[in-house]
Design brief:
Two copies of one chain form a homodimer.
Chain A lengths: L14 H20 L3 E2 L5 E3 H4 L10 E5 L18 E3 L4 H11 L7 E10 L11 E10 L7 H15 L6 E7 H10 L5 H8 L2 H4 L1 H12 L3 H11 L2 E2 L4 H6 L6 H20 L4 E4 L12 E7 L9 E12 L2 E11 H10 L3 E3 L7 E3 L7 H13 L4 E3 L6 H11 L3 E5 L5 E5 L5 E3 L9 H4 L3 E3 L9
Parallel strand pairs in A: 1-5, 7-9, 14-15, 14-16
Antiparallel strand pairs in A: 2-4, 5-6, 6-12, 7-10, 8-9, 10-11, 11-12, 13-19, 16-17, 17-18
């Protein structure tokens, strides 16, 4: 499975693969709604000015222009025209715009989930597509947003990921205040620069990061070493606090960050044991994060990259003096589904929603067959009717080819029988009362037992 | 409700409006799956060459280009570059491409539904957006596709529309073979030209269409009159057959079309009484239809335009000599939802998924409150926990503002009570067993009783 996309970076699923994706999407929606998150969608299109507010990402944006622009009312998309239209590259920036525009209609703190496609004109590779689906949850406040929502968001995501047919995972959590306070405490004031360097740790290693810190940010050996020591701290409980303190740095912002991260980790140890680690190397490239930052790895699939990222942003959305601080996390649905499919981690119990094919005895029996089908559908049993009165063997073969487990027969006397074509067992049945076993009623998506994680 | 979109032609819904849209989408999905249609999605992007295969639509297409194209590996979208990328403007053309590409993996006749956004760079107006959601069902065969699927598709759509919170509707059905055979039978061989003129009947009236037929297609008075007589036939049963025969035209293709349309209408009279009319004025502009053609109006909202259109296409998809004839219908979800919202035809029973807010007695009770919430969620009750231990009155006000019907209290002795904040009734409750009434468990979307159809 997972055939090559006919357009590189734009994956499309076969129907049985789509069933796995639908299961993932339905599961996420269910968990999000149980936690009181409202669904919204934003338009796929933003103005270039809106998208580029935070800088850096313009390389990846797809601009729009009408192919035959004969009315002159829309300009071609270009990075220099802030009113030009472009496709959104994430769901956070559009959500911030939506909140500001609709602030008068929303009840704050506003909890929403948003599951949509986003587009990035990047070079495609495994785990990185040009069109992909994200599933985001965020809580946004009006003026302020209690820190408790940072804790809650992490717990909701841990619950949502636990419900998916995926390998074990770890939320790796850090806090920008902690890191920035620490850097200031050791005398490195270009905290964004330090974060950018630390963000490269996994790619280029500690020695090269130390080199960067010294050459580009003027850090001393000691400062570089201290920054790397901080980034080396990783604990599954709140013992990171003592480890940071042992580095002997004091700073108010550092204390605030330590306290926040401790709250998240303490709650996670209790409510999502084993799913969360404090990882002080996590930086997140995007510069709108102001506190909690999160990345998530699938255990045994670390090279896939983060499958869920996000954090706290206190200044992304504002309307005059009114601020809308938020915290949110975004699940990379396409990245997850691609991995599930390419490694057969889960599969659908059948390839179509149909449970029953009603066979035709002769061509005139189509109406009667539709009556049987309507009765079954009325009780929630997905049913289709054969289009041609071919020999029963052919109609059974048709059901088999489509992956339909049951075939229904009605003889000239109106006697009904249903055959489980997997076992060959055929029994008398009443369209008003017969039902398949629960596991055959609708498509089940189950984790493959033989699934083995690919070593990192 | 239905505020002005901040970008003309790109509607966005408030959370409580989105609940209505979700209800429509969930209902359609359920009906489609009960009839054995598989979900697929295709990429939002097609090549310009693929999109323009059928001509005429290029004015409406949005082309894509990367804002900062510094790698030179992608050209700017342009109508003269068939490899350039553009957003799809419907779901039929992408589906045809998908079928051809994946023919080796699909079991035919292949039944699929597809619910996605499409984009058209048209001038926005009521009922016509630039970004909108379509919900399509199609059946595609390999080589041939029995006509019975034309009948079935119409019945499935009638059932799906009947399940939605919308006013009464009529599927207006015609058949291209019938019309083309008739035109040939009266000596008008440019049947596409005649269809294009007849398609303008509702807009410009019979007199001007007769003029067009005479000036542009060289029709005689008698020919123009005959074509208009045919277009004037509209019956709720199969009596259209006799009315056409009374016009005295004979042609083999006409006979074939009469027989097909009779089959659809006969089945509809029986299985979807009152929902379908034979309307011989229906032409459909797009030229890939080869038999059955359908448009659908909401009764009392005719000026909204068709809310569900489609038909039989025998030659849209092919791979060498291999043909994949299909039949399908497309529901204009955004057009329907816009109308439901702007005229308050239906509404959600509350504005958030949350049924219960667990209040905090003091700040330290957050963990215990999460335990209560987890118990409720475990039984399918959407629950959120207050973030701050404010006075109970304030926490109740918060629930009220968010539209949450129940607030849960736990006192210091661990005694639980739940308050219905609409009635004010507060009762003892056990988090392991308490449940709201069925109608409060999840959001209900109901047709407004006072909804009055707008006169046409």
């Amino acid at each position: 499975m997972a055939r090559t996309a006919s357009l590189s970076g734009f994956p499309e699923w076969l129907p049985e693969e789509r069933l796995v994706e639908l299961h993932v999407l339905d599961t996420l929606r269910k968990v999000f709604e149980l936690h009181g998150f409202s669904s919204i969608e934003t338009r796929a299109v933003e103005t270039v000015g809106q998208l580029l507010r935070k800088g850096e990402i313009d390389k990846e944006v797809y601009g729009l222009s009408r192919l035959q622009d004969d009315e002159g009312d829309e300009s071609k998309a270009g990075k220099h025209d802030p009113h030009a239209l472009a496709l959104h590259f994430d769901l956070t920036v559009p959500f911030a715009r939506y909140v500001v525009e609709n602030a008068g209609y929303l009840a704050f703190p506003f909890r929403r989930y948003q599951i949509q496609k986003v587009w990035r004109g990047e070079r495609p590779q495994e785990g990185r597509a040009r069109e992909f689906t994200q599933a985001d949850i965020d809580v946004v406040g009006d003026g302020d947003l209690p820190f408790r929502y940072d804790v809650e968001i992490a717990l909701v995501i841990a619950e949502a990921l636990s419900a998916l047919p995926i390998p074990d995972f770890r939320l790796r959590i850090n806090n920008r205040k902690l890191a920035e306070g620490f850097y200031r405490g050791i005398g490195l004031d270009d905290t964004a620069g330090v974060l950018r360097s630390i963000d490269k740790l996994e790619k280029i290693g500690a020695a090269k990061v130390a080199e960067l810190l010294k050459t580009e940010l003027g850090a001393s050996d000691e400062q570089a070493q201290a920054a790397l020591s901080l980034a080396g701290i990783r604990t599954e409980d709140t013992s990171f606090v003592a480890q940071v303190r042992a580095l002997g740095v004091t700073n108010d912002l550092l204390e605030e960050g330590l306290d926040e991260l401790e709250q998240v980790i303490a709650a996670a140890v209790q409510r999502a044991p084993g799913k969360v680690v404090a990882d002080l190397s996590i930086a997140r490239g995007l510069d709108y994060y102001t506190g909690t930052v999160v990345e998530t790895v699938l255990v045994g699939h670390e090279q896939l990259g983060s499958i869920c990222s996000g954090g706290r942003y206190d200044a992304l959305a504002s309307k005059g003096n009114r601020k809308f601080p938020g915290v949110g996390l975004s699940i990379g649905v396409t990245r997850l589904v691609s991995r599930i499919l390419s490694q057969d981690l889960a599969k659908a119990s059948r390839s179509v929603p149909t449970a029953v094919l009603v066979a035709l005895t002769d061509d005139d029996s189509w109406g009667a067959a539709q009556d049987v089908a309507a009765q079954l559908r009325g009780r929630g049993i997905a049913t289709e009717v054969a289009a041609k009165a071919e020999k029963f063997g052919k109609q059974i073969k048709f059901a088999d080819r489509r992956g339909i487990p049951f075939v229904w027969f009605t003889d000239d006397d109106g006697k009904h029988q249903v055959k489980d074509i997997r076992s060959g067992v055929q029994v008398d049945a009443d369209p008003a009362s017969w039902a398949p076993a629960d596991e055959d009623l609708s498509v089940q998506v189950t984790t493959a037992l033989h699934a083995s994680a690919q070593p990192a």
